[in-house]
Amino acid sequence: MKRLGFIVLAMFSCGVYAQEPKFAPVDTSPADIVYFPLNAAKAKDDSKPLVKLVYSRPTKKGREIFGVLEQFEKVWRLGANESTEIKFYKHVRIGGKRIKAGTYSLFAIPGREKWTFIVNKQVDRWGAFSYDSSKDLVRIEVPVIQLLKPMESFSMTFVTQTYGADLTIGWDTTMVQVPIQIK
After folding, report:
1. Beta strand pairing call for 31-36 and 51-56
2. Boundaries of every domain in the chain
3. Percent above pLDDT 90 for the chain
4. pTM (whole model) above 0.70
5. 114: closest CA among 144, 79, 136?
């Protein structure tokens, strides 16, 4: 009887071990989060973030980025992997258009001299493969700023302005700034 108990216990032990999940390897384009105001989530007082941006950060790895990897005049997800998402905790204005508090996806159409920056209602999408322009809330054009020194990793941050913030986007030798008016 003890032997039967041991066999049953051994069977259950093997079954639990066999069901351990296989974890994915670390992504080569890690996800990052940026708040406005910067570090708002770490604040020790009662201040709350006004904007939260979640995106993946691909790296240059010796590649030519704009015009080759990310083609000019084609919709891009602003990063890698899932579409970049932005959460506004208050109503904002981008390009003069009012956007209600909520979560949205961000896309861009890179060009040599200017980019079209897009705020879209679709969220939880992979890349720009299922991008639907009929769900665009805002499209504005912003000028390209050439950087003197290339940036290895795609990066986004917020730069404080009197009207709110500029969402500043940079990679390789290209930078754009998108004004966000925060009420």
Report:
1. antiparallel
2. 25-182
3. 70
4. yes
5. 144
